[in-house]
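A quick aside before the break. I want you to see a complete sequence-to-structure record at least once, exactly as it would be stored in a machine-readable document. Don't worry about memorizing anything.
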Amino acid sequence: MMRWLLWLLAGTLLGGIVHLVAVLILPSTATQDAYSRLAPMAPVNAVATVPQPVPQNEVMPFMDPAFASAVCRYDLTEGPIKLTVPVSLAYTSVSFYTRRGVAYYAINDRAAGRRTIELELMTADQRSNLPEDEEVTAADRLIVESPSGTGLIVMRALAPEPGLMPVAQAALNRATCKPEPLAAER
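That is the input. The structure line, written in tokens, reads:
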């Protein structure tokens, strides 16, 4: 009887280890992650609108039909980028993800406190190379440090009623995500 309990315990322990390893490895081996799904429709360092979800045909799973969405696939190897997103009537949010889908920063229109969300996205090395300017305060310039050189910026605007969806989409159509000139070029 004791031998069977040991075999059962060993089998359970081995099964748990295999399960844990599989759960940790599968996301990095997935070929249809968000970055890959959006690559055909979203050029690098430019804003592209995401089509509204319809049953059986969503670009991304679990998209909320009450939100208009846009994405920017960014690449910081050439330098930082400047993101400008006009806020919509109801609610606007901007979320930042690494290439592997790890969220590292988010801001909404209420936190921005302005009619436009403006920020600069750069790596830690690029930020350390910025010249110190006494006249520019932290309130004047929002800088987000990316933990990776590539990733996704997802912008969403709420349409509280179906008839206001064109207004939410128009706000995101005015968003820009463009390379910022390097400090030496300024």
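Two observations worth writing down. The first strand starts at residue 47 and ends at 50. The chain has a mean pLDDT of 86. We'll return to this after the break.
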